[in-house]
Amino acid sequence: MVESYKNKVILVGCGPGLKAYISPKALYNVKKADILVGSRRLLKLFPGVDAEKIILEKNYSILIKKIADWSSTKQVVVLVSGDPCFFSYAKMIVKKMGRESCIIIPGISSIQLAFAAVGESWDDACFVSLHGRNDGYDHLMKKVREYSKVGILTDLKNTPAVIARQLLKGGIQERQMFVCENLSLPEESVRETDLVSAVHLKTNAASVVIIKKY
Ligand SMILES: C[S@@+](CC[C@H](N)C(=O)[O-])C[C@H]1O[C@@H](n2cnc3c(N)ncnc32)[C@H](O)[C@@H]1O
Predict the structure, then answer these.
(1) Positive or negative torsion for Cα 116, 180, 163, 195
(2) In terms of CB atoms within 10 Å, which end of the chain has fewer, N or C?
(3) Residues with beta carbon inside 6 Å of ligand 1?
(4) How far apart are alpha carbons 212 and 123 in whole angstroms?
(5) Domain ranges in the chain?
(6) Gap between the Cα atoms of 199 and 168, Å rounded
(7) pLDDT on residue 5
(8) Whose CA is closest to atom 5 on ligand 1?
(9) How far apart are CA 71 and CA 74, in angstroms?
(10) Statement: residue 1 has pLDDT above 70
């Protein structure tokens, strides 16, 4: 039986990029969409889905208002990378529409994949996102001093090299750094280094960085 969610938006976690990480429950919900909203990269994961496709770029606030309007007559499904409840725009949609109007389908987060790739537990870790941020280093420094493991979402500006430089500048030295790029994708790379060497590290994509006390 097809579950119907009248007047509700479905927020679907699509995992780290590889189709095999998309859950059957996620796929089932995506197929119900009249309107499918997501980044170009995420929309490409569902070429066969017969829905109107809306590209989400930097148009978050305008689009979120439209999503709320469309959802009164159509089934809107919003694609989110990784897990919707982990540093994503799902938070803005839930805030705008109210919790009772949102169905959230969890996905595998990039952070889970990163910790799995380096064989570390994440139940004792702390998480910080520098993705799209111009500040955040004071907060990061505090967390790195406080926790033995910190998982960081980066972007093309807040790169592993910039993070290493900032930590060293703040007097933090004795840490292992794992740089996990393009997780689950054919170009995946997982590197282990220390902060001094990381200052010169070249990266080509957003990554998850794990900082660990020796
Ligand atoms: C806006 S955040 C979204 C996080 C997402 N909700 C999650 O649970 O993974 C985007 C950041 O997630 C990380 N990320 C997403 N996919 C990744 C991948 N395949 N490999 C490495 N990092 C990834 C990067 O740090 C990227 O800048």
Answers:
(1) positive
(2) N
(3) 16-17, 80-83, 86-88, 109-111, 131, 153-155, 180-185, 206-208
(4) 14
(5) 9-108, 111-213
(6) 9
(7) 65
(8) 82
(9) 5
(10) no
Q: 9-108 sits in which CATH class?
A: alpha beta
**Fold of the domain spanning 111-213:** 3.30.950
Q: What is the chain's mean pLDDT, rounded?
A: 94
**Ligand 1 pocket mutation, candidates 81, 85, 92, 128, criterion most atoms within 8 A of CB:** 81
Span 9-49, pLDDT tens digits: 999 999 999 999 999 999 999 999 999 999 999 999 999 99
- Going by DSSP bridges, is the β-strand pair 175-181/189-194 parallel, antiparallel, or unpaired? antiparallel
**Rounded CA gap, 69 and 177, in Å?**
45
145-154 pLDDT, tens digit each? 999 999 999 9
As a whole number of angstroms, the distance between CA 175 and CA 58 comes to: 35
Question: What is the Cα Rg of the chain in Å?
Answer: 19
More confident residue, 181 or 64: 181
CA-wise closest residue to 151 among 96, 101, 191, 112: 112
Distances (CA, A) of 11 to 30, 31, 75: 9, 13, 11
**In the predicted structure, residue 2 carries a pLDDT above the cut 60:** no
Quick check: 212 and 143 in contact, CB under 8 A? no
DSSP state of 210: E
- Residue that is written with structure tokens 């309107």 in the block: 35
Helix (H) or strand (E) segment spanning residue 213: strand 207-213
Distance between CA 73 and CA 181 in Å, rounded?
40
pTM across the whole model: 0.94
